[in-house]
Design goal:
The complex is a heterotrimer. Chain A is about 65% helix and about 0% strand. By secondary structure, chain A is mostly helical. Chain A is globular, with a radius of gyration of 24 Å. Chain B is mainly alpha-helical. Chain B folds into two domains: about 1-60, no CATH class; about 75-315, MetI-like (MetI-like fold, Orthogonal Bundle). Chain B has helices at about 1-5, 20-60, 75-85, 85-115, 125-130, 140-150, 155-165, 180-200, 205-215, 220-230, 235-250, 250-255, 270-280, 285-315. In chain B, α3 crosses α14 and α13 runs antiparallel to α14 (about 285-315). Chain B is globular, with a radius of gyration of 24 Å. Chain C is about 45% helix and about 15% strand. The chains are: A mainly alpha, B mainly alpha, C alpha/beta. The interface between A and B is large, with 125 and 121 residues.
Chain lengths: ~290, ~325, ~425
């Protein structure tokens, strides 16, 4: 087995499909069970959101509500400046994603494809910066944002995350693996690095950019402490941070209301994901992202 | 090592003619171009990551609370860390969490990716999508949903398990079960992302290798060990390192589900950092602790680089 | 495309983004001649919040030279956001917080001294409940004005009491245990009651006050004088022994729950009694439970209940005029009209002991809680590192209820609390 030459052969070279084997059937059943287990908490969020309080705390518990109610959802939509929070979430998560994709891919291109001095050191520093927990730098970051006068503004929310080390490293790994024949040819034709970046590398990096984009958008949409600390005014908060306002007397959030809030926070992401998932997953599953 | 610090041939413009001075100016030109590409990201990272990290490093040598007067205390904070029994127990808990989270998350993601990658499997795209869905749920919400499912009084999963004879009581109040449960929540939330990365990595494994292995009479395990694993080693190293960094910074679901209890059995280093900084207002101590965590993470990463680097060399 | 184009394009991207970011920020600067603008953070999110907002609005109307604007967030969020805000000098001028969180901020120099405010009789501060004042006093200096001080109490489900034929709330520990036994129902005999007599959480109890209350009942304490750990005492050992027998052996209460789970069990009607604060009224109403309120029963030595305190403080101000403006608001908050309005609106007893009891008689809850105000004891007054002390108490009670050795655990808690107090 040692002498396998890793020659690359395209997907077309795969052999003819053999018949469905029993092992595949077992795998199929096993995967179905895995999906059921994986989706159980999500089903629980969805159905609990529509349960009346009595049923939420009933024993024995059931997955489905016996009586459907919109009371939990209504409470959220009436108690929170709902539309504004969603708008803020979209601006925050979308803004961060847009900036980060541009800045990260530019930086990743240099790290992957330009042989400049200090490259290895810079790369190590960038990776090392991921290893400090953000709770540790939160206060110094806040001080910078406050010095800029950006507390309670979109700029203050977005700017500190407009580039991030994970994204740079992730894209660099992908750019490294892209074949170089075309860009070398383009260079000989006199194309600038920026042109190669824009016209050759980026179009070939769509799956990686989508992966990173989804990753960044989801993480920022879901972030709690960041928008909480950087926006003290209710109308500047995000949907995720706004849900903390539902905390009732004695610090209690009823399960039903919390689940409804969670559902509302997840729903836009879920819909957006289902819309792009075909392109996203298919592009990944056919071209790959070299991690 | 190669995959992570990059030794693939990169473009060097052909030096037209002449000796050293010309080559140096070509290098200067590349440096300038690179700087332009790097500038936007470096400005952001410099102002909002590097500078705060330097501030935190400075704070770690003071008794700062974040406001008011601060005094230089030298290495006192660091000395305190290594003398504090609570910190040592948090360190132990963090390592325990790392073991409970990283290998299972990576194994589940890899296993499912291999299963779903089978071209004869029906409904592949359904599975690809379904396994990614938990990733879009925040850790705090995941924690809340799992907490509800496992609640000893009203939890559905707890009830189902007890009806088939498995009594877990109140797992979040059981010092032996609490940590596995908070790790489980993180595995559930995170594996989807790693799964997609593995799925992508698997597309780069040439089918010819499998065919050759089959011809050699290799069984599924031998094919996995000798073809898939070596070909995935880059991806695996990437996923392992980021799963490890995530594990060492575990916070959200612990904060929501157990607050570090019962009896401190889920108190991790980042929980300690948070409590020192935000509850006891000992920002200097919290900063010192953060730098100890950074050093430990760096060390573990280097070990991993070396380990995976060797595997890669063994192959070729 | 030439290299120069590359330069300009990349630079343009960077510049454009900087501009866009800068454009997003709009920051009003305060003019020096206008009214003094103060920011006030608080966590009153229910009906109590409306009353407080009204008091602030009235104050603003009466004082055209001062404008107080409020920012409302849950208490836990205030605790998370206050430190970064203070560190950058963008914090509020007035902030309300749970009273046991005040000493640590005060000790680090976040708040202005209010000693002079308390010395001025016109402010009515001298009439504030001394227990409440203890909670805002750190190293002999007053740093806050209490906005709430109420002893924990027993909230009971009247329907469950009636069903068991019980007409009176228990008044002594023995009484409490025997009534709880009557109210505990295990119909199928599986050892897990379907209905509990009472819920006594073993950690993260309501306002961290359940176990301190029980310790007081037998003459025990946790910290004395703000600096001496006294938890390892024979009295406290007896208390733990007594309640472990009742909770674990007699199963009158579920084990391993925390204060928030306690509220949800009580509100689902599966427990007859719980320990709570005035907000139980809202929770009971939400869940359609007809409730009664009684003092925590007397222990063998004393009748006492740990109090829940909330207080507001003024952050350090460079400008004495701002400090004076904030103090003016505090005095307004404590005046005769507002002291009564705030009590009735928040459902908490009046903070001033010189308010006649009949002025709050209209609100049955307030009246009931006011009558037990004498039992209220401040929680860990003047203790800067209350976080670690409370964690030590939680670890103690949780491990005792799980069957640990009481004497050894008390010694351990004593050592931890001593370390926390030494700081």
């Amino acid at each position: 087995m040692t002498a396998l030459a890793p020659t690359r052969v395209g997907a077309l070279a795969r052999g003819p499909r053999p018949r469905l084997k029993p092992t595949t059937a077992f795998a199929f059943i096993g995967l179905l069970a895995a999906v059921a287990l994986v989706l159980l908490p999500i089903a629980s969020i969805v159905f609990t959101a529509f349960k009346p309080t009595g049923e939420v705390n009933a024993f024995p518990p059931t997955l489905l509500p016996e009586q459907w109610t919109f009371a939990n959802v209504e409470r959220i939509t009436t108690e929170l400046p709902f539309a504004r929070l969603i708008l803020n979430s979209v601006i925050f998560a979308g803004g961060v994603t847009a900036f980060a994709l541009v800045f990260d891919s530019l930086a990743a291109y240099a790290l992957a494809r330009i042989d400049f001095r200090g490259r290895t050191v810079l790369l190590i520093v960038i990776i090392a910066s991921l290893m400090i927990p953000f709770q540790a730098t939160l206060i110094p970051v806040y001080q910078v944002v406050a010095d800029l006068g950006w507390v309670n503004t979109y700029a203050g929310l977005i700017a500190p995350r407009a580039a991030d080390a994970f994204g740079i490293f992730f894209l660099r790994q992908f750019f490294l693996a892209l074949p170089r024949d075309i860009d070398n040819a383009a260079r000989i034709d006199g194309a600038s690095e920026f042109r190669i970046f824009r016209s050759i590398v980026i179009p070939n990096a769509i799956p990686a950019l989508m992966t990173l984009g989804i990753f960044t958008f989801v993480n920022n949409w879901n972030d709690l402490l960041w928008p909480l600390v950087f926006t003290t005014q209710r109308e500047m908060g995000t949907l995720t941070s706004g849900l903390t306002l539902l905390t009732g007397p004695g610090g209690i959030i009823p399960y039903g209301v919390m689940m409804a809030g969670s559902l509302i926070a997840i729903l836009p992401l879920l819909v957006a994901f289902l819309i792009v998932q075909r392109t996203f997953i298919e592009s990944i599953a056919t071209t790959g992202v070299k991690g | 090592m190669t995959s992570l610090t990059g030794s693939r041939p990169t473009y060097r413009p052909p030096a037209p003619l002449g000796g050293r001075p010309r080559r140096r100016s070509a290098q200067d030109k590349r440096d300038r171009t690179a700087l332009l590409f790097l500038a936007p990201a470096l400005i952001v990272l410099g102002v909002f990551v590097a500078w705060p990290m330097v501030s935190a490093l400075r704070l770690s040598f003071t008794d700062a609370s974040g406001f008011g007067v601060e005094n230089w205390v030298g290495f006192d904070n660091y000395a305190r860390i290594f003398a504090d029994a609570d910190i040592l127990s948090a360190l132990f808990n963090t390592v325990w969490y790392l073991v409970l989270f990283t290998p299972p998350a990576v194994a589940v993601a890899l296993g499912l990716a291999l299963a779903v990658n089978n071209p004869r499997l029906p409904f592949r795209s359904f599975f690809r999508t379904a396994f990614f869905v938990p990733f879009i749920v925040s850790l705090a919400v995941s924690a809340f949903a799992w907490g509800y499912l496992l609640d000893p009084n009203v939890g559905l999963l707890n009830y189902w398990l007890s009806s088939i004879g498995i009594r877990i009581g109140n797992p979040l109040q059981d010092p032996n079960l609490a940590m596995p449960v908070v790790a489980l929540v993180a595995v559930w939330k995170s594996f989807g992302f790693y799964f997609v990365i593995f799925l992508a990595g698997l597309q780069d494994v040439p089918a010819s290798l499998y065919e050759a292995a089959r011809v050699d009479g290799a069984g599924p395990w031998a094919r996995f060990r000798n073809v898939t694993l070596p070909m995935l080693s880059n991806t695996l190293a990437f996923v392992m390192i980021f799963a490890m960094i995530a594990a060492l910074q575990a916070f959200d679901q612990i904060y929501v589900m157990t607050g570090g209890g019962p009896f401190g059995s889920t108190q991790t280093i980042v929980m300690e950092i948070y409590e020192s900084g935000f509850r006891r207002l000992e920002l200097g101590f919290a900063s010192a602790l953060s730098y100890v965590l950074l050093a430990a993470t760096l060390l573990l990463s280097i070990v991993q680089f070396v380990f995976f680097g060797r595997r890669e060399r063994d192959l070729t | 495309m030439t290299r120069n184009r590359t330069v300009t394009t990349v630079a343009a991207v960077a510049a454009a983004s900087a501009l866009m970011l800068a454009g997003c920020s709009a920051d009003g600067t305060e003019s020096s001649d206008g009214p003094i603008e103060l920011t006030f953070w608080h966590g009153y999110t229910e009906a109590d919040g409306d009353v407080l907002e009204q008091i602030v609005a009235d104050f603003n109307a009466e004082n055209p030279d001062i404008v107080i604007s409020t920012e409302i967030n849950p208490w836990a969020v205030i605790d998370d956001t206050l430190l970064p805000a203070l560190s950058a000098g963008t914090g509020p001028d007035i902030v309300a917080m749970p009273a046991e969180r005040l000493p640590v901020y005060a000790d680090r120099g976040a708040f202005a001294s209010l000693d002079e405010f308390y010395a001025d009789p016109a402010n009515n501060a001298g009439a504030v409940n001394p227990g409440a004042v203890d909670m805002i006093t750190v190293n002999g200096t007053a740093y806050g004005v209490p906005t709430g001080f109420v002893p924990l109490a027993v909230y009971f489900n009247k329907a469950l009491f009636e069903a068991a034929g019980i007409t009176e709330a228990p008044t002594t520990w023995d009484d409490w245990v025997s009534v709880s036994e009557q109210l505990t129902i295990d119909e199928n005999g599986d050892g897990t009651p379907e209905q509990y007599g009472v819920i006594l959480p073993d950690h993260a109890t309501v306002a961290n006050g359940l176990w301190p209350s029980l310790f007081y009942g037998n003459g025990g304490e946790i910290v004395e004088g703000g600096d001496t750990a006294v938890i390892d005492s024979p009295e406290n050992a007896e208390t733990l022994e007594f309640w472990r027998d009742a909770i674990v052996e007699s199963a009158i209460s579920p084990t391993g729950v925390d204060g928030i789970e306690a509220d949800s069990i009580f509100s689902s009607g599966r427990a007859a009694m719980t320990i709570g604060g005035p907000w139980m009224v809202f929770i009971a109403a939400d869940n359609g439970i007809d409730y009664g309120i009684a003092p925590i029963p007397a222990g063998p030595v004393d009748q006492a209940a740990s109090a829940i305190g909330v207080s507001m403080a003024i952050t350090q101000q460079e400008d004495p005029a701002r400090q004076a403006a904030a103090e003016k608001f505090f005095a307004y908050f404590l005046n005769d009209d507002n002291a009564v309005a705030w009590s009735l609106g928040s459902g908490w007893p009046p903070l001033r002991t010189d308010i006649a009891a009949d002025s709050v008689a209209d609100n049955a809850t307030v009246a009931a809680l006011t009558s037990m105000a004498e039992f209220g004891r401040p929680l860990l007054p003047g203790v800067v590192n209350s976080v670690d002390v409370l964690t030590a108490v939680d670890n103690l009670t949780q491990q005792v209820m799980a069957g640990g050795d009481i004497d050894a655990l008390l010694a351990e808690a004593q050592a931890e609390i001593e370390a926390a107090l030494a700081g």
